[in-house]
Design a protein that fits this description.
The chain is of the alpha+beta class. It contains 14 helices and six strands. The protein folds into three domains: 101 residues, HUPs (Rossmann fold); 93 residues, Tyrosyl-Transfer RNA Synthetase (Orthogonal Bundle); 94 residues, PH-domain like, CATH 2.30.29. The strands form two sheets. It has a four-stranded antiparallel beta sheet, covered by helices on one side. Strands 1-2 form a two-stranded parallel ribbon.
Amino acid sequence: QSDIPEIPELTWLLTCVAGKGILNRAHAYKAAVDKNREAGEDDDAGVTAGLFMYPVLMAADILMFKAHSVPVGRDQIQHIEMARDFGARFNHLYGEHFVLPEAAIEENVATLPGLDGRKMSKSYDNTIPLFAPRDELRKLVFSILTDSRAPGEPKATEGSALFQLYQAFATPAQAAEFAEAFTAGIGWGEAKQALFELLDAELAPLREKYEALMARPDHIEAVLRAGAEKARAIATPLMLELRRAVGLRDLREQAGGKKAAKAKAALPVFKQYREKDGRFHFKLVDAFGRELLASEGFASPREAGELISELKRSGPEAFQARMQHLTLAEGIAPADVIAALAAFAEEGA
C-alpha cells in the first residue's frame, strides 16, 4: 500500500460512499468499544479515525485489482463483505467499475487458535511466529493452554487448541491417529511434543528460506519495487477511469470549439528520429516536454511506427508486453508512462 499512492486515493473515494452504520459493526472497532466499556471509559476513548476507517482501506486494497476470489480466514470474511458493499454502492452511483469479490475459505483451518485457546492474533499476544527459532517454537508449543486431565484420562479433541493446530498441519491419516491418541488418554506433554515435531518438520525448510532472504535486503527491496510497478500499471489507469466517473475530469473536456482544439495540443507526443547508425528510434515526451521513454533502434521507420500505433491504441497492455523494446527515462516510473498513454485513449474515446 505504501508504494501505491492510488490505494489511499481510492480509499477516499470509497469513504464517500461507505456507510457509518456498517463501519460501526467492524470487528476491530467493536473490540475497542467493548474494551473501553469494560474499563468504564467512553466508547470511543483512544479510538482513532484510522482504526475506524481501516475497513475502507482494506476494501480499496481488494477492489483496486478487481479480484474475483480472495483467500481469507473465517475471521476476515467481514472485510470481504464490506468491500462488496462499498464496491456495490460505488457501482450503483457511478457505473460498473468494480468486481464484487467472493471470500475463499479453507473450511478445516479457517481460523487457528492461539496459545490461550482464543483466536490466534497479535492483539491477544498469543501467536506462534512461523519463522521462530526451533527452541523458541518448542517453548511456545509447550505453553499452549490445556486442561488438568492426567495421562491415561480420555481427552476431547473438540475445543482443544492443541488438537486444532495439529489438524491444520497434519494429513487426514495423521489427524485421525492423533484423535485416537486423545481418546486413549495421551499425556499433554507427549501431545505437545508430537505437535512440536510436526510443526518443526513443516516449518524448518521455510525458516531456512526466510533467514536466507532476510540476509539479502537489497534483493527483497528490488522484488518489492518490481511488484509495486506491476501493481501501479493496473492501479494508475483504473484511477484515471474512476476520477472521470466521479467528475474529477480535465476541465478542457467540458469546453467546446476552440478550447477543445487547444486541449489537443496538450497531449503527449511521440517523436521519431534516426541515429547515426542508420536505425530508427522514437521517444515519448509529455505535454511539458519531459522525456518519458525511448525505444531501441529499428531497421525501418515502419517498424518504429507500428509500435507507436500499438502503444497509442492499447496503452498499458502494449507497454507491459513490449517493455523489452523500451527504456524509461531517468526518474520516470512506469505509472508516468501509463498515465501519458491513457491520454491517447481518452482522446480517441
